[in-house]
Amino acid sequence: MGWIEHDYVDGVALANALAADLAQTVDVALATRNGALLALAGGRTPLPAYRELAARWRGHADAARIVVMPTDDRCVPHDHPASNVAELRAIFEDTDVRVEAMTTANGDPERSERYARAMLAEHPAAFDAVVLGMGMDAHTASLFPNARQLAAGLDRTLLLDALRVDPDPLPAEAPFPRISLTLARLLRARALHLVLTGDAKRAVLARAQTNADAVARPVAALLHAPGAQVHIHWSP
User: Fold this and answer.
1) Of the candidates 235, 32, 45, which has an alpha carbon nearest to the alpha carbon of residue 134?
2) Phi-psi bin for 61: left (phi > 0), alpha (psi -120 to 50), beta?
3) Domain of 215: which CATH number?
4) For residue 49, what is the enclosing H or E element?
5) Checking DSSP bridges between strand 192-197 and strand 98-99, what pairing results, if any?
6) pTM (2 decimals)?
7) How many domains does the chain contain in total?
8) Which pLDDT band holds residue 99 (cuts at 50, 70, 90)?
9) Is residue 1 pLDDT above 90, yes or no?
10) Strands, DSSP E only, in 110-157?
């Protein structure tokens, strides 16, 4: 089985458990590899866990050796409400944690794609942990079904770390091109976490668990990737 399921009574319990897992992962990385590298999804579900981590790392002597980045981001200026990196920087602003962006400051899609690839080339090591969410259309990171770049984003032989993705159709709540880590880069991780809430998403996940069609449900590519083990964190 490519996944381990963790069910919680509510979102608070989920966030507390996820924060504890990530904190332990970072402690091991700092002790054994002299640094920690995390890729973190945006969205409401994992944010309380990130805030708990920020509280742990505030004033931490080794916080400067922790690097975090979004798993994906919208191509918007960094002061835009839809910017994932802006949200991460706000959470970790009172710490010495380094927050890397996937996009340029003005959010230009073409420049952002080049920027993300250059930035990731400076961080070639495996992620110590990756935290992902999932949409009702079964996208994860910004690997959307029907996007013309989906095949490239899922192709582990292309050796791409990041690419521009144009969701089709553009989500009404965030109608922007995206920059996303590719499946290959997401899988280059010591720990993979998928967080979701609600029965509706649980049903979407169940279909991806039983059907490996990643074109229809991109999250299935993560769940069924050979050798990968995904920790699924769910609460009602």
Assistant:
1) 45
2) alpha
3) 3.40.50.1360
4) helix 47-57
5) unpaired
6) 0.96
7) 1
8) very high
9) no
10) 129-132
